[in-house]
Amino acid sequence: MEKPPKVTQREIARIAGVSQATVSMVLNDREYSNVRIPEATRERVRRAIEQTTYVPDPAARRLAGLDNKILGVFTYEAALSRESLDFYGPLLHGIEQEAERLGCDLLFFTSSPVEDGTRKLFHKQTRLRLTDGCILLGQQMDSAELTRLVEEGFPFVAVGRRDEPGVPYVGIDYVTLTGDIVEQAVALGHRRITYAHYGRSTPAAADRVAGLALAAETMLVETTLLSTADSDLSEVAAVIANGTDTVVITEDVFMAEALAVELAEHGKAIPEDLSLAVLGDVEGHSLGGRGMTGFQLPREQLAAEALALLQQLIVRNDKARAKLELRTMIEGSIVAGATLAQLKESR
Amino acid sequence: MEKPPKVTQREIARIAGVSQATVSMVLNDREYSNVRIPEATRERVRRAIEQTTYVPDPAARRLAGLDNKILGVFTYEAALSRESLDFYGPLLHGIEQEAERLGCDLLFFTSSPVEDGTRKLFHKQTRLRLTDGCILLGQQMDSAELTRLVEEGFPFVAVGRRDEPGVPYVGIDYVTLTGDIVEQAVALGHRRITYAHYGRSTPAAADRVAGLALAAETMLVETTLLSTADSDLSEVAAVIANGTDTVVITEDVFMAEALAVELAEHGKAIPEDLSLAVLGDVEGHSLGGRGMTGFQLPREQLAAEALALLQQLIVRNDKARAKLELRTMIEGSIVAGATLAQLKESR
DNA sequence: CGGTGATGATAATTCGGATTATCAACATCG
DNA sequence: CGATGTTGATAATCCGAATTATCATCACCG
């Protein structure tokens, strides 16, 4: 009751009548330069281990330079709260599944200190180095931190496209998806589109704007950009209601829902008076019983691929690593929905 | 680009012109037996650290016997899948919040091998020892593993009441809650109750049965127990429909929903023909627009208290630890709902 | 019988940081 | 002036496992 004397290799060695080094070699089943251990001895060691409750100390293994089979999961804000789970849930699920497949444990950096509303990856007591590598999730990634990770050669993968050079990532191709939505709007007769967005400067947000601009140019569509960073949502709604654009595209489903309410107050019904599409995942959301037009994003796959890439970065040596494709874009798909409708001739 | 030579205390020492030992002592701001370090030297070391990107290696710290500020989270099945999240979500949220408060990271043992459908805590490569202590979640806890943890003196806390001696836990008082439900039924005129359960042998399941028995005896109520382990749900429904009991209590909300469907086929409406109550959390669930009668369980608080207790087990020395209350029961509350109704006189 | 390999296994070292045991240098006291 | 502190800081160890350097032993060969 008083002493839980932990079992070490030394203890195993004593029992089996061999040296600690022998125990280590049997355990890892390795053949070093000129070391040979006959089956008889190996067996003796194995039996000694079975007699006890020996488990290798992961800290010691790590210190000695071995893999730990621990992958870090860093989120720039709390990931497990009810609200965050909407976004992080599928990602975490994908990560958990893939980690299970790889035989890795997951370390969540919940202790990271919060500065300016976002967690800092590097701090005086970061347990980052305990992991073999790390997955980064969140919109608020800090460029300086990413760059430092690259410089230090620490294995990591960002979920979401990033601009910083050398940063490995797996992202979603919003440019193409956005183009597809515009194409659909055009096919339904629309020529004037308003994009209501948050005015964020993340790569994903930039890609949507870029996709929109590209599609507008190709398909001769006029676009109006309204940012809720400049004016609040009711103002945005007023501008739309008084304008002549026939389609409203929003950055995500939450803005779509809020905007629809505002527009209704201006007497604009969707999709009768105005079509609506969302440049984000719309699964499980609907507007007045109508399915929303938007994206279906393979978040679980996204996360799983990120983890798989991370694993590759960890296990491959430098040469093999150089050949890896560090940046992957994944295709999402369009959810037709019913909020983007044929343009009425009546105009 | 080729060499990320990690910064160690030795390197800091070289820069500051002191010994590694001095660096360590400055970092931990400790005063050993007869060691004194003047402010001037401390400052020199601190500046050297600021010049570099030094961060202590957690593996080395751990090996040297210090706290790691890492708490383990062990679940007996995958916790982050969409279905599991129903149950684990609030618990994990509570854990995350409390961990953040305590400044601890969380290690999820996703690599634990699955045997007989449930994960094993102990295996040849368990990273358990990397953590300062561990939280156990899930219905399927393995008695042998719990006992071994107790024997080894490893700090841990189970979420949910356990029978094994010496196991610290934080659980929900199902006995009292169940009694309250019965009391309510009696107040509404009911005297004959059927309890439909899964026939599990977990402590929580046993507590519900015990609470029911206790209440039945006190309040002179007749109870019938039906287990879906013995017969399937439609049979259970048939027995209930043909019987004379006026209240059905189910073990959880899922069984309640399924049973309600079956009962409807027998022409029994709830609560007109039969009252229904659930011995589990009913938040967010309803039956044909009617709120369910059942429990509201403070899952987040439960998890947070478990983590707080774990932290106490870790930081206190043996003596102080002996005085700790290792077993805590938390009170949930009753959700009145509308599926448990006044008994019609017409009988 | 001395030399040369192959065998089997161990002692010694490393990893990075914490802690203990020791020591040098200088001050103070009687 | 020598004994005794006091200050300041270092060398040496330890933690547990991985790996390298070395060393016995015995067999076989010429």
TrEMBL record, chains A, B:
InterPro entries in the cross-refs: HTH_LacI, Lambda_DNA-bd_dom_sf, Peripla_BP/Lac1_sug-bd_dom, Peripla_BP_I
Keywords: DNA-binding, Repressor, Transcription, Transcription regulation
Top-rank taxon: Bacteria
Record domain HTH lacI-type: where: 7-65
Gene3D superfamilies, per the entry: 3.40.50.2300, lambda repressor-like DNA-binding domains
An annotated Gene Ontology molecular function: DNA binding
A Pfam family: LacI
Coiled coil: none
Protein name stated in the entry: LacI family DNA-binding transcriptional regulator
